[in-house]
Amino acid sequence: MIASVGMIVVASLALTLGGIAFWVLGVVAALFMMAEWSMLQGVDAKTKRMTQFALSVPLALMAPASLILVIHDFFTLGLLVGAAFFVVITTRKPKLALGILYCGLPVFALMIIRRQDEGILFTLWALSLVWACDIGAFFTGRTLGGPKLAPVISPNKTWSGLIGGVVLAGAVAAVLHMQYGLPMRMTLATPVLAVLAQMGDLYESWLKRVAGVKDSGNILPGHGGVMDRLDGLVPVAPVAAFLVLLPHFYA
Q: What is the Cα 129 distance to its own chain's centre?
């Protein structure tokens, strides 16, 4: 619990400061995730470092405009794909290259969201719905129990936990809508994104089961690795960014 509070405080502080602070936190998280992904793929330390170096190039272009002068999101997205392609041709390991997108895309999405006029609110929504889903799923599942959600992949997850997580995430979005004006499209989409967060959690559990490990790492006391904490945010962040940018597509 202490580690959980600490992580939320750090994330909230970086979110509030925005700019370089938020970018640095995203870069650090992505590089740790890439190291953990490489470990799950069973590669050696040299290959792990190479994937981190490949990922660091597009991550650098996600920096705020005060550092890189001009922001080119499509070029950065292309570099992410290019970095994945580089890993494929140098290692002949497509699954390892997938980690570039797995670790880089959520950071890319969050940087885009935070740059918007209401970036703090929108980013808080994306982060808090994942936090709320995790908290609601944990306590509801522990309290009510019931049928398992995916016993082969993650024996501890239950359908009651999924429902509890979705309900709490929806409640948080409703509060943000009523108190701070979160757009209705995001509020209504929150339950779907909460389910997506749980799917991200299950996917990471499957990766660990295939690799034969309990946690993706041990850097976070009581939580395992960075991937163990951000697995739900990985699929949510890109979809959240799409919802945030949706009005621009029709402008």
A: 11
HSE value, Cβ hemisphere, 13 Å, CA-based, for 78: 4
Tens of pLDDT, residues 63-97: 886 665 567 788 889 999 999 999 999 999 999 99
CA distance 167 to 193: 12
Determine the distance from the C-alpha atom of residue 174 to the mean position of all C-alpha atoms in its chain, rounded to a whole number: 22
Host H or E run for residue 158: strand 154-158
Which H/E stretch holds residue 155? strand 154-158
Question: From CA 208, how far away is CA 236, in angstroms rounded?
Answer: 20
Write down the pLDDT at residue 14.
92
Is the Cα dihedral 136, 5, 17, 111 positive or negative?
Answer: negative
Does the pTM surpass 0.85? The reply is yes
Mean pLDDT throughout 112-124? 94
Whether residue 211 contacts residue 40, with contact meaning beta carbons closer than 8 Å, is answered with yes
The 3-state DSSP class for residue 150 equals strand
Q: For residue 104, what are the CA distances in angstroms to 3, 160, 192, 212, 241?
A: 24, 32, 22, 24, 14
Distance, CA of 212 to CA of 214 (rounded, Å): 7
